[in-house]
Amino acid sequence: NQLFGDIKTWLKDAPLHVEQQHIEIREKFTGPYTVPLLSISTQTGQTLVEVKPRGAYVILAEGLIDVEGEFGREHITFMVDGGPYSHRPVPENTTQLTKKQMFEGIGDDGWYWVEETIDDKAHFINNKNALLDVITQVSHYEL
User: Fold this and answer.
1) Which residues, including other chains, have CB under 8 Å from residue 123's CB and lie 6 or more apart?
2) Could you read off the pLDDT of 25-42 as tens digits, one per residue?
3) CA-CA-CA-CA torsion for 67, 11, 122, 79, nearest 10 degrees?
4) Fewer CB within 10 Å, N or C, the chain?
5) What is the full DSSP assignment across 103-133?
6) Which CATH number characterizes residue 106's domain?
7) pTM of the model
8) Which residues constitute the domain of residue 27?
């Protein structure tokens, strides 16, 4: 997975240890298959997060990865074509529908963290700082 390679590259100079393991996941359409899992810890061995694929076949996206830490779990999803859209009736003409992007901030195809706030803001996970924001959210650990 390209994201896992990127994570290793982004964190290679950080005071963190990244260990890759493999786990088996099972999906209805594919059956069981093996995927990488990344465990990210401090230099003293304190595990901060595990980055775990959850599935390639998910609603509203092309893939789902969980980032789990002591203080919660966040989801990173692979979005294409601007992400999911909703169709709503036009107020002036309820027989006509308008297409609206469900999450603001999705442009390029790629991995996004949709921060679960009132605005459901999407963050493109395309650099070290974006990744560290997710890690901090679930571990309360800041570099």
Assistant:
1) 105, 112, 113, 114, 115, 130, 133, 134
2) 988 888 899 999 999 999
3) -80
4) C
5) STT--SSEEEEE--STT--EEE--SHHHHHH
6) 3.30.920
7) 0.85
8) 2-139
